[in-house]
Design goal:
Length: 331
Amino acid sequence: MTGARPMPEGPHLLTVRRAVRAWFGEHCPERAVVVGLSGGADSLALTAACVAEGAQVHAVVVDHALQAGSAEVAHRAAEQARDLGCSRAEVRTVSVTGAGGPEAAARRARYAALDAVRGDRPILLGHTLDDQAETVLLGLARGSGSRSLRGMAAWDPPRGRPLLTVRRESTVGACAELGLAAWDDPHNLDPSFVRVRLRGEVLPLLEDVLHGGVAGALARTADQLREDGAVLDALAADIAVSARVGDALEVSALVEVPGALRRRVIREWLADCGVPLRNEAQVRAVDDLVGAWRGQGGVAVAGGGPVERLVVERRRGKLDLVRWTGRAASE
């Protein structure tokens, strides 16, 4: 282990440290963590603050190998972590493949690499209040319901996000106070990514038109919806106990249930059945088999394959997920 370097008590670093200290006090008093370190300002400031707060930090730099020179960037970040005083710092190179686009594939690969080394320790990520605001805006634009507007949680085991109350300017400022050269990911300047345009164009415009405070208001909205959602989810879980009959749902146990709760039961049931829920319209169409029943046919849902089609049908008083295979699946 490299000894921790002396850290100046600049105002930005203190802001980051206070957030980290509060997170440790609420979620991880033993202060042994894995930090996902990219070399950018957010994760560098998080790493420094964790060390300054006396944590045992295992820094993991994931090299996605998507850009020229990524290995050099990763090894430099690991060296910075050692200089800061992390108990361990390593680079893990991953292969980014699979469905959902490059961002989703990279996220899956990154989380898998972090999960592989964490043991029973939480994984800390450097998402800030600005990232939270962008997430809420994306959810709002997609119209995918309150679940997506909840944004990211400060603690979603095994992942923690201590900096969700901290603005990006503070993480950048903390690195400057420490004399750390943070890496600027070229992807963060590429306007082909929606988040880049939200960050560089949409949020600044909203802040200007609404005279500031927009990012904080969006983050508070996420907090409020997360609290409300937790209550509704608990009520829906109780209802699901009486509605589940094997792999099916009993219609009579759901027909008098308010739609907001019923759709939560249906959403979790479909997820348990392995149906990828891509939009709220799909859930509402299944819900109509209970709340707006007119004898209509089944509802096709996502998750089938070239020779299989998944359909939710109402029959004999139950909702069943039926798998049509062969010729019927392609018609």
